[in-house]
Structures are given as structure tokens and as C-alpha cells.
């Protein structure tokens, strides 16, 4: 470990938490503790001892959830060898409360912002975990459009809200929103708790199919089961980029799935950091070791439901099966 590793690593740090407690969140209900601003440099420096190229993000859930979000973005850039990206994410909480925030988004080159709905007002407020969230999303849509930023509406569908999704699409069109997509989400984190009301494929109204994300790749659980029941391979999650999620207790996780005990890499400050780096590079954590020990065909026979028409994308289903094993192992 004497030489710097010629690798790029993204550090995604939950410094100030999130104003929402979304029932779909793949990260689950991680604590909303605040990491002091002075800790950012300490975190980055630990990694810069081992990695040549580090990118630092000060948010894991709600972007820019800081009082001084403008300065925070400047600091993120200063801490990073390769500059962080804005993606299509922003804080709708701040869009409707701070007139200067949307101006900041324009300054940093934001062209599009994703907003998430779960049906009409009552259900969207319920799933986001805040009364008034639905109306804030509508107001945020207008504010973005007035500032030449395109709103992109993401709509989660399940058996509870399916009858309201067409209404949401009508509202989107009435608000001149052209970028709309529907999906059930992964079956991970909090969304895994909603397995029982996961949408059945036959219950997706045909009028919704043109808006459904990658509908041609969508499978029922029964179809997934059939594809995997004789699969002798192992499901080893991986990513083209090295991304480490850091929660407010300074515990580290790969960004493949929800932060849970068996996915924990270690603690930024409490554990030997050379050992931490070895675990990151070699993916030597308990969850991956278990994943390498049980073939997919065994996972689906243990945890799959052959009689289910709930919808999945195949890799999301594999992760669902693996996390069942991790929770029971």
C-alpha cells in the first residue's frame, strides 16, 4: 500500500441527512445525524493516502440539504481531484423555500431535475413522509419551468396507488411536463418492505405502458423464477465505478444496495484503514463472501415465489433474493 492506487473512487457522504422519510427509499431509514463540516477534509484525506483520484459528494440522499448549499458545493469541488457531477437531482424541499436555490441550480448548469410522485396528494404525502409534499412537488415543477429547467416526473407504481397513476400523468401533461416515467423501483431497502403490494404485471393498465421504464425488459416473478431455477452461477454485485456510501456514523458501504450489517465495509475512523482499502479493492466483505457461496438456483428455490406475477427487472430480483439470504444467514 506504499504506492497510491491508480483508481478513481467516489465518496458519497450523508453529511446533513434528508427532510423526507420515503417509503420507497432503497437506502432504508438511515440516521439523520449531522456530520460537522470540518470532518469532510478528514474523510477525504484518509482516502487520498491510498487513492490517486477522489471525488467527494456531501449528500447521499437529498442534494444540497445545507443552509449554505452554495459554499458546500464549492467545498465538494475543492476536495475532489475529479469534480463531482450534478446529475438530475436537486432538493425540492429547498426549491419551494429558497428563491435563490433555483438560481444556484442554473449557475451550476442544471438542465433537468427529477421529482418523485406516488399517486395523488394523500398517497404522495404518505410515501414521502411529509404532509404537503405533493403540493410542493407541483410548485417545484412550476418554479423549475419558470427558470428554464426541465422537470422530470418519476412515478412509483404499486397495487395501492395504481388507480391514481393515470391521474398523475394527466396532471403532468396539464403542467406541460413532457418527461415522465413509471416503474416499481428495486425491491431493496424500504421498498423491499412493500413486496406484498408490489404491482402485478397484469395490473399495469395498458395506458401506462408507454410511460413504463424499459417495459420490454419487465418480468413477472414467475418468469424470473423460471429463468433462474437451473442457474448454477453466482450473483456477485459489481459496478463500473467505485462508489462508497458513507452514513452519518462514518460506516462505509458499496452503493450496490441498502446499507446493512453484512454489507458494511468498515468505519472510516474506527477501523484499520489499510484493511479497509483491501476490503474495498478485493470486495472482501461478508455479503460478497456469502454471495459467492450460494448459486442463484438455490436462492430462487429458497426465496422465490413461483406463483407470483409481481414485476421485476432480473438483476433487481437477484439482489432481492440475495438480501433475503443475507437477512437469514
- The SSE string, one letter per element, is EHEHHHEHHEHEEHEEEHHHEH
Gap between N and C termini, in Å? 33 Å
Radius of gyration: 21 Å
Q: Would you identify the regions where 5 or more consecutive residues have pLDDT less than 50?
A: none
Question: Count of helices?
Answer: 12
Portion in helices: 25-40%
Mean pLDDT level: 96
User: Shape, please?
Assistant: flat
Please state roughly what percent of the residues sit in beta strands, choosing from under 5%, 5-15%, 15-25%, 25-35%, 35-45% or over 45%: 15-25%
Largest sheet, in brief, is: 5 strands, mixed
Query: Strand pairing plus helix content: what structural class?
Result: alpha/beta
**How many extended strands?**
10
Largest beta sheet: strand ordering: 2-1-7-8-9
InterPro entries: Aldolase_TIM, Radical_SAM_PqqE_MftC-like, rSAM, rSAM_sf
GO molecular function: catalytic activity; iron-sulfur cluster binding; metal ion binding
Keywords: Iron, Iron-sulfur, Metal-binding, S-adenosyl-L-methionine
Protein name: MoaA/NifB/PqqE/SkfB family radical SAM enzyme
How would you explain this protein's 3D organization?
Keywords: Iron, Iron-sulfur, Metal-binding, S-adenosyl-L-methionine. InterPro entries: Aldolase_TIM (IPR013785), Radical_SAM_PqqE_MftC-like (IPR050377), rSAM (IPR007197), rSAM_sf (IPR058240). GO terms for molecular function: catalytic activity; iron-sulfur cluster binding; metal ion binding. The chain is α/β, with parallel strands linked by helices and 329 residues long. Among the domains are: 1-85 and 238-283, no CATH class; 87-183, 3-Layer(aba) Sandwich (Rossmann fold). 34% of the residues lie in helices and 16% in strands. The protein has twelve helices and ten strands. A five-stranded mixed sheet has the order 2-1-7-8-9. α7 links the parallel β4 (150-156) and β5 (179-183). The radius of gyration is 21 Å and the shape is flat. The protein starts with a strand and ends with a helix. The mean pLDDT is 96.
Amino acid at each position: 500500500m506504499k504506492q497510491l492506487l491508480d483508481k478513481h473512487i467516489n465518496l458519497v457522504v450523508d453529511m446533513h441527512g434528508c427532510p423526507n422519510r420515503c417509503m420507497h427509499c432503497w437506502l432504508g431509514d438511515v440516521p439523520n445525524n449531522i456530520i460537522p463540516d470540518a470532518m469532510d477534509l478528514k474523510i477525504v484525506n484518509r482516502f487520498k493516502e491510498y487513492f490517486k483520484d477522489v471525488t467527494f459528494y456531501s449528500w447521499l440522499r437529498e442534494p444540497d440539504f445545507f443552509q449554505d448549499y452554495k459554499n458546500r458545493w464549492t467545498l465538494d469541488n475543492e476536495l475532489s481531484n475529479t469534480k463531482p457531477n450534478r446529475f438530475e437531482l436537486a432538493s425540492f424541499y429547498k426549491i419551494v423555500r429558497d428563491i435563490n436555490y433555483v438560481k444556484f441550480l442554473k449557475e451550476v448548469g442544471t438542465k433537468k431535475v427529477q421529482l418523485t410522485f406516488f399517486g395523488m396528494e394523500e398517497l404522495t404525502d404518505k410515501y414521502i413522509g411529509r404532509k404537503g409534499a405533493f403540493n410542493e412537488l407541483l410548485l417545484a415543477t412550476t418554479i423549475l419551468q419558470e427558470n428554464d429547467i426541465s422537470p422530470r416526473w418519476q412515478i412509483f407504481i404499486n397495487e395501492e396507488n395504481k388507480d391514481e397513476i393515470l391521474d398523475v400523468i394527466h396532471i403532468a401533461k396539464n403542467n406541460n411536463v413532457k418527461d415522465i416515467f413509471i416503474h416499481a423501483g428495486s425491491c431493496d431497502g424500504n421498498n423491499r418492505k412493500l413486496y406484498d403490494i408490489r404491482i402485478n404485471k397484469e395490473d399495469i393498465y395498458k395506458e401506462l405502458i408507454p410511460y413504463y421504464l424499459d417495459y420490454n425488459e419487465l418480468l413477472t416473478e414467475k418468469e424470473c423464477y423460471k429463468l433462474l431455477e437451473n442457474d448454477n452461477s453466482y450473483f456477485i454485485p459489481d459496478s463500473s465505478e467505485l462508489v462508497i456510501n458513507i452514513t452519518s456514523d462514518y460506516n462505509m458501504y458499496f452503493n450496490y444496495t441498502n446499507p446493512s450489517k453484512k454489507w458494511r465495509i468498515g468505519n472510516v475512523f474506527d477501523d484499520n484503514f489499510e484493511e479497509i482499502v483491501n476490503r474495498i479493492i478485493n470486495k472482501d466483505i461478508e455479503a460478497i463472501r456469502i454471495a459467492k457461496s450460494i448459486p442463484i438456483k438455490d436462492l430462487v428455490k429458497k426465496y422465490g415465489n413461483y406463483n407470483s406475477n409481481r414485476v421485476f427487472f432480473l438483476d433487481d430480483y437477484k439482489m432481492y433474493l440475495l438480501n433475503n439470504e443475507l437477512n437469514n444467514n
